[in-house]
From TrEMBL:
Official protein name in the record: Putative G-protein coupled receptor 88
Coiled-coil residue spans: none
InterPro entries: GPCR_opsins, GPCR_Rhodpsn, GPCR_Rhodpsn_7TM
Lineage: Eukaryota, Metazoa, Chordata, Craniata, Vertebrata
Gene Ontology CC terms, in alphabetical order: membrane
Transmembrane segments: 25-50, 62-80, 100-123, 144-167, 187-209
Residue intervals of the G-protein coupled receptors family 1 profile domain: 41-217
PROSITE patterns for the chain: G_PROTEIN_RECEP_F1_2
Keywords of this entry: G-protein coupled receptor, Membrane, Receptor, Transducer, Transmembrane, Transmembrane helix
Membrane topology: Multi-pass membrane protein
Length: 217
């Protein structure tokens, strides 16, 4: 029967189990505060964009898409972490592989779509400022904008099964640590490449905007 320490190692998303009860309570309250504030702020942004026609622009469509992605983390994932941090480590409700898969999927889905939305906003500003108006209008028609938003979610859904390190169980009976370490290294490498690639594209867009503004000045 695995103890609290081995169960903590088998569930990487639950980083609270190895801490003291006071730390777990504090982090659970922090998760709760972040969940409430993040949910309210993202809902407010979505409400404002849909309420005022002047705000219904292409750039704001990508911002709303990012807010929807953030809601999957703030409104769905964080409240679960806040509750789970208050449960005992040997709670039977935490042993379900399907439940770990659901939580890991919500987290990776929200983070991936949020990163993609930030990139879409930056590229939208880049095209608007550095290209001709006709190019911008041709590229950002309503149908094309919808396809970009749908592609961000499709890409996230394709990447979710490729992140086994987020929820791969590792029990005390699993002797070969090389497989688990390889899975963790693969997950870390994939996440690092995604973040670095998104950062490089963001820098390219914003540096292009800076060069164009300086040239115009």
């Amino acid at each position: 029967m695995p103890n609290a320490s081995s169960w903590s190692a088998s569930s990487p998303l639950l980083l609270l189990w190895e801490d003291s009860s006071g730390t777990r309570i504090f982090l659970s309250l922090l998760y709760a505060v972040l969940a409430i504030s993040g949910t309210l702020s993202n809902v407010m942004v979505i409400y404002l964009v849909f309420s005022f026609k002047k705000l219904q622009t292409t750039s704001n469509a990508f911002i709303v898409n990012g807010c929807a992605a953030d809601l999957s983390v703030c409104a769905l994932w964080m409240p679960q972490e806040a509750v789970l941090g208050l449960l005992p480590p040997n709670s039977s409700s935490l042993r379900s592989a399907e439940y770990r898969l659901l939580r890991g999927g919500l987290l990776s889905l929200g983070l991936t779509v949020s990163l993609a939305s930030h990139l879409l906003v930056a590229f939208n500003r880049y095209v608007l400022i550095t290209k001709l108006p006709s190019v911008y209008q041709a590229l950002y028609q309503r149908r094309h904008t919808g396809c970009m938003i749908g592609l961000s979610w499709a890409l996230a859904l394709l990447l979710v099964p490729l992140l086994p390190g987020l929820w791969t169980p590792r029990s005390a009976q699993q002797p070969p640590p090389r497989q688990t370490d390889g899975s963790s290294r693969y997950t870390a490498l994939l996440l690092a490449l995604a973040v670095l690639g998104q950062t490089a594209l963001l820098l390219h867009c914003y540096l292009g905007i800076v060069r164009r503004v300086r040239g115009s000045a």
